[in-house]
Amino acid sequence: MSIKKILPEEWRLSASYGAIFLMHSPTGLKKDVTSIQIWFTPEKLPADFRFGESAPPQEIHYLGKHSLGHANVAAPESAEELWPSFLDDVRAALGLASEKTREIADGSSEVIGFDPDKPWSASGRVTDGEGNPIAGATVRAHCGTGTLHETGSTTTDADGQYKLSFGPGIHKDDDVNLQAATISVHFVGHFEKNMHRQGDLLAANKLPKGAIDWGGKKPEDVFLPDKPKTIDFVMLPAARFRGTVVDQDGKKLSDIRISLTGDELPPSSSVVTQTRSDDEGSFAIDNVPTGFKFQILVEPVKAESPWLAWASPPIEFVADDSNDAHLRYSDSGKAIDFSVQGLTLLLHGTGVNWKSSLEESKSKTLAPKYDGLSTNDGTIVSAGMAWIELGK
């Protein structure tokens, strides 16, 4: 375990009665043993908590909330003489932030620092395309490896400013605890200009030794305790569209998942946005980024192997003055723009594997004719043996 790695020479580790003991025993005799006890409690202990009549007297240190509970350390005064940095070392091994002090004008000092549960911090400003502040936008942090978990959230103030503290999405058995850390912003009717790629970062208790083997990331891309980063965001008006999903017989399909995906996605995301059709087969997709090409992916109610789906070719959405979505494409050199409000997604065939459907559809383009279907009235087709027809 990570605590064992921090032990200085002549210290050893043991565990019993639900606690971890770090013991200094230079002679092996009981009278010469100095013991540091680490234990976890469901609730935070009161500030005046003491161990009965323990000898020598034990000082209690609260380290913060850990995945195992509230972390506490009990140690005699002699522990600091033998191991001066034991508190900071144990904190780091448990993935908790160390405390800092700051001087106050009257010459005294006070303990400051981040919430031990949330050792990392970001701040910045959220504005519109003209540089005006956006108040009430939600800024979130998602952390972990593989599956990311939301570990912090805040909102912008009247000046568009935010301050966000967040914690780990996973606790690893090492003193680095390196993991993905994605900072994103959300505001109804808008999307982030860069799809918050500037928030595609990492977080750790400390920098790992050597190169960071994680998607070309550099040391400056890693959040560290007590070292906040500044990340600004620009929000632009998003598009929206409505439609209905039906099968080849015209039957309206409920609980069908409709997603937008593509080669350009927000960090740590497999789709841009998604929804499900209601009992009448109707659906609504909001907050669609404009200026990017996405594919519409439709998947059945029950997701199971071989993961059948239907997909459209890459299409670009634009927004009118009411934020209603339009599709814009070129037909024989002529620019065509049509509304996609009230579309029908007509599912042909039985579907193909979703990866194959997306890949095969990439080679399809909007054209006057394809497989006998006209595109002049807003029809789009994809993936020969299974396709989506978009029509009024």
Number of strands: 31
Shape: elongated
Output mean pLDDT: 79
Helix count? 4
The N- to C-terminal Cα distance equals: 62 Å
Give a short account of the largest sheet: 8 strands, antiparallel
Low-confidence stretches: 98-114, 329-335, 366-392
Strand residue percentage: 35-45%
Structural class: mainly beta
Written overview of the protein:
- It is a single chain.
- The chain is mainly beta.
- The chain is built from 4 helices and 31 strands.
- The radius of gyration is 28 Å and the shape is elongated.
Helix-strand layout with pairing:
Blueprint: H1 2-5, E1 11-16, E2 19-24, E3 34-41, E4 59-66, E5 69-75, H2 77-82, H3 86-94, E6 100-103, E7 109-112, E8 120-128, E9 138-145, E10 147-155, E11 161-166, E12 179-186, E13 190-192, E14 200-203, E15 222-223, E16 229-230, E17 233-237, E18 239-246, E19 257-261, E20 273-276, E21 282-288, E22 293-299, E23 308-311, E24 315-319, E25 325-331, E26 334-339, E27 343-348, E28 352-353, H4 354-361, E29 369-370, E30 373-374, E31 387-391
Which characteristics define this entry?
392 residues; mainly beta; 8-stranded antiparallel beta sheet; 5-stranded antiparallel beta sheet; 43% strand; disordered C terminus
At a glance:
The protein is mainly beta and 392 residues long. The protein has helices at 2-5, 77-82, 86-94, 354-361, and strands spanning 11-16, 19-24, 34-41, 59-66, 69-75, 100-103, 109-112, 120-128, 138-145, 147-155, 161-166, 179-186, 190-192, 200-203, 222-223, 229-230, 233-237, 239-246, 257-261, 273-276, 282-288, 293-299, 308-311, 315-319, 325-331, 334-339, 343-348, 352-353, 369-370, 373-374, 387-391.
